[in-house]
């Protein structure tokens, strides 16, 4: 087996329309919705950087220009903050622009996650790469992406993040048919996109983290529109499995999901509650709020 190339590139699909969050997303990307005091996509970029990735390609679409502006320098604002003595805030803005080399390409049409990944082919070339969905991320201490990259390095094969969900939830996800390898690693024998309840091959759901070999692009060229009339990444992975092993890296906790409105609100409450500067007062407010609601 050839020595695995280092994974230094991440692709973040962010071209979706965000219809679950209308009207808030009519004029701004859902990835830029604030989670406490940072946009959701910044947490995703920071996760990639923690895993050693320094080259990031964000797949955008119409109306996503604010994504580029967020990760760019804003010299006027930085100057104003410096003049007012707000050096910590100024330095934080500068750091955002220096997180990594960030590039952008438009998907053109929202034809599914598989199509969004295919758009990255010219940038990625013949190298392995990570895929991080733009509306979910992992806790800083989870080590998920780091573990997936290490697993790729050991086997020189694609690795998909998997998490157990309830039988009722599995139809919302891609679902893996697993074969045990180690405690947190399986070999994926098949993967099915959004299987109907009762027909899923397991309760292991594909979550929004992937480390992919470049052969995935050839598979993406061969698939037909699937669930929802879109090109599904899971269909391409199922095709890739016919030619080379694909592994599933299982995890149990540490995932933040802002893809649904209720989940988005839960994440804000959880992160704000854990903050040293906000947590004590916010938790006290929540206790009083809940107590008053219960009395009513």
Automatic annotation (TrEMBL):
<dbReference type="GO" id="GO:0003983">
    <property type="term" value="F:UTP:glucose-1-phosphate uridylyltransferase activity"/>
</dbReference>
<dbReference type="InterPro" id="IPR005771">
    <property type="entry name" value="GalU_uridylyltTrfase_bac/arc"/>
</dbReference>
<keyword id="KW-0808">Transferase</keyword>
<comment type="similarity">
    <text>Belongs to the UDPGP type 2 family.</text>
</comment>
<dbReference type="GO" id="GO:0006011">
    <property type="term" value="P:UDP-alpha-D-glucose metabolic process"/>
</dbReference>
<dbReference type="InterPro" id="IPR029044">
    <property type="entry name" value="Nucleotide-diphossugar_trans"/>
</dbReference>
<dbReference type="InterPro" id="IPR005835">
    <property type="entry name" value="NTP_transferase_dom"/>
</dbReference>
<protein>
    <recommendedName>
        <fullName>UTP--glucose-1-phosphate uridylyltransferase</fullName>
        <ecNumber>2.7.7.9</ecNumber>
    </recommendedName>
</protein>
<keyword id="KW-0548">Nucleotidyltransferase</keyword>
<dbReference type="Pfam" id="PF00483">
    <property type="entry name" value="NTP_transferase"/>
</dbReference>
<feature type="domain" description="Nucleotidyl transferase">
    <location>
        <begin position="10"/>
        <end position="272"/>
    </location>
</feature>
């Amino acid at each position: 087996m050839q020595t695995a190339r280092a994974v230094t590139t991440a692709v973040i699909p962010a071209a979706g329309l965000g219809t679950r969050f209308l009207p808030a997303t009519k004029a701004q990307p859902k990835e830029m919705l604030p989670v406490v005091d940072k946009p959701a996509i910044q947490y995703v970029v920071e996760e990639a950087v923690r895993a050693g990735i320094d080259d990031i390609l964000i797949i955008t679409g119409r109306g996503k220009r604010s994504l580029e502006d967020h990760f760019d320098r804003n010299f006027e604002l930085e100057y104003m903050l410096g003049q007012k003595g707000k050096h910590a805030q100024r330095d934080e803005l500068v750091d955002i622009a220096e997180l990594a080399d960030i590039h952008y390409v438009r998907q053109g049409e929202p034809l599914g996650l598989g199509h969004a990944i295919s758009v990255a082919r010219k940038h990625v070339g013949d190298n392995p790469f990570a895929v991080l969905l733009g509306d979910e991320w992992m806790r800083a201490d989870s080590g998920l992406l780091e573990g997936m990259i290490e697993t790729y390095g050991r086997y020189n094969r694609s690795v998909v993040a998997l998490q157990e969900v309830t039988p009722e939830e599995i139809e919302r996800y891609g679902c893996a048919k697993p074969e045990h390898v180690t405690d947190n690693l399986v070999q994926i024998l098949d993967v099915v996109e959004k299987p109907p309840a009762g027909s899923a091959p397991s309760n292991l759901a594909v979550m929004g983290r992937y480390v992919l070999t470049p052969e995935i692009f050839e598979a993406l060229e061969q698939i037909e529109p699937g669930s929802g009339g879109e090109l599904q990444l899971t269909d391409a992975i199922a095709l890739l499995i016919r030619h080379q092993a694909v592994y599933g890296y299982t995890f149990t906790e540490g995932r933040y999901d802002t893809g649904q409105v209720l989940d988005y609100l839960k994440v804000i409450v959880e992160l704000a509650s854990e903050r040293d500067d906000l947590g004590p007062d916010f938790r006290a407010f929540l206790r009083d709020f809940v107590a008053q609601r219960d009395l009513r």
